[in-house]
Amino acid sequence: MIEPIAVEKSQVKTAAAVLARAFHDDPPMVYSVPDHSRRLKCHLILAAYIRHALACGEVYAASTNFEGIAVWLPSNGMKTGMVQDLRNGWLSILLNLGIKTVKRQREIAAVMGSVHERCISSPHQYLFFLGVEPHQQGKGYAAGLMRTMLDRADRESFACYLDNTKEENLPFYRHFGFEVVEEYSIPGVTSNIWAMVRTPYGKKQR
Fold first, then answer.
1. What per-residue confidence (pLDDT) applies to 206?
2. Alpha helix locations (H) across 77-161?
3. Would you tell me how many other CB atoms lie within 10 Å of the CB of residue 191?
4. pLDDT attached to residue 120
5. Which residues are CB-contacts of 6 (< 8 A; sequence separation ≥ 6)?
6. Which of the four CATH numbers 2.60.40.10, 3.40.50.1000, 3.30.70.100, 3.40.630.30 does domain 5-198 have?
7. How far apart are the C-alpha atoms of 126 and 50, rounded to whole Å?
8. 205: CB partners within 8 A, 6+ apart
9. Domain ranges of the chain
10. What are the E-state strand segments in the chain?
11. What's the angle, vertex CA 112, arms to CA 107 and CA 116, rounded to 5?
């Protein structure tokens, strides 16, 4: 069985490119960058988020071939400041994708953050992104990436949280023990979003 590997700083661009292809038609990303051709540059946005996660969280690739990527953040590591944003690449995003894209990303983050805060207050891990190359989907790579953190969650007894942006993915996350705690919408985003929480194995949902 292939084990996921930790992504290093030198591999940010490779990981971001994988997520960019996986999230090309994701409703929040489409809202952020409506133009199809300009959305090819959304790897810049994802690279910024990966850099943040490498500084305070964890990023995994499905294997050395980078079939998929999982980005995890601890519950106390989601907020950033202006200096860190600049280091992570938000100036490049502004210059390449424009102020509207940056504002829309901030709008999405604000709504998701508000829902997140009211849905779970205990220390937990946040599945910020999980994406697999379109031509590699259905081969078990996403499952392998999930188990890396979920096995540890059960051993160390902490919860996990995620925002699911596509209804068809609900059965997949439920299979791993996540349950919907709130369904919400973001103005401009065409699909509802499902906030999901997974309690560690053997513990009851609070």
1. 39
2. 82-88, 90-97, 99-119, 141-156
3. 16
4. 96
5. 58, 59, 60
6. 3.40.630.30
7. 13
8. 179, 197, 199
9. 5-198
10. 5-6, 58-61, 68-74, 124-132, 159-164, 179-184, 193-198
11. 150
Predicted pLDDT of residue 81: 72
Query: What residue type is 23 in one-letter code?
Result: F
Q: Residue 109: phi, psi to the nearest 5?
A: -60, -35
The torsion region of residue 117 among left (phi > 0), alpha (psi -120 to 50) and beta comes to alpha
pLDDT tens, residue order, the chain (206 aa) = 678 999 999 999 999 999 999 999 999 999 999 999 999 999 999 999 999 999 999 999 999 999 999 999 999 886 777 778 878 889 999 999 999 999 999 999 999 999 999 999 999 999 999 999 999 999 999 999 999 999 999 999 999 999 999 999 999 999 999 999 999 999 999 999 999 999 998 664 43
**Could you give the CA distance from residue 26 to residue 35 in angstroms, rounded to a whole number?**
13
**Residue 205's pLDDT is what?**
43
Output the six-digit token pair for 134.
């379109």
CA distances from 9 to 13, 29, 140, 141, 162 (A): 9, 24, 25, 22, 24
Nearest 5°: the CA angle 156, 162, 164 is 150
Cα–Cα distance measured from residue 188 to residue 49, given in angstroms and rounded to the nearest whole number: 22
